[in-house]
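Entry:
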Amino acid sequence: MSNGKPSDEPDMGGLGRLISTSKATFEALAAITDDCHGLLNAPLFPPSPKPGWFDDLDSALDSAKAQAQSWIDDVGPNVTGEILVLVVNHGTTFSAISAQVGSIAADHPDARGAGDPFVQTGLELSGSLDQSLHATVARLETRLATITAWGETMQARDAALRAAADESLDAKAAAAPALAAAAQVLGSTDDALKLLRELIAAWRELGDAMRDAVAALSGGKVTLGTFAADTFSAAAQAEWGVATQFAQKLATAPFGSPGRAA
């Protein structure tokens, strides 16, 4: 899996990290789905006559598979899609608000201070973007907690499976495909959690920058014209436009095996 930007993605400055990390996180979450399918398909056949260790091993594997199924049915779809939806939603909002603030600033570029009615309108519009960015961070942190909890349960199921397999050499041999599949799930989960933390940091940086810009406008440190030029420049609008289109394209891309982009 490559975490680099696709060849047709331009250098988007401050948004480059957000988009490349969004893509990498999406792919890492999809890899968990793929690996969970691999665990579900891991075979375990009872020898004949059935040895005493088999029932414990079979039960432990069933528990691990149930946890994998919960990812496929619930956790995975809810988290994976949201990574891209957040980019699309914010990019769409950014485009609409930048046009409104830009229009007001073009007519009243020297407006300054929170008491100015045109600045007040600019603050109201921009404040919604500020709130959106920080709400995005909060949502992703909730998702991070969900995946962390799911991964901890999977680790416990994996430990139980390995304990059952350690009952004998024959049990370990029979469980080898399942053990390998479970290890793959845990490895993919660790990768996804690391990337999701990086993604949260990228969104937080954008949120902090927006909050600083809004504070500067509210405090009269900059005029409305300067604020609009710095925050809603043509370059920034173009960047978010490309980011939105890229996220939409990735969200609708065809998939090869379950959960993995072709």
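Residues 1-13, 255-262 have pLDDT under 50 and may be disordered.
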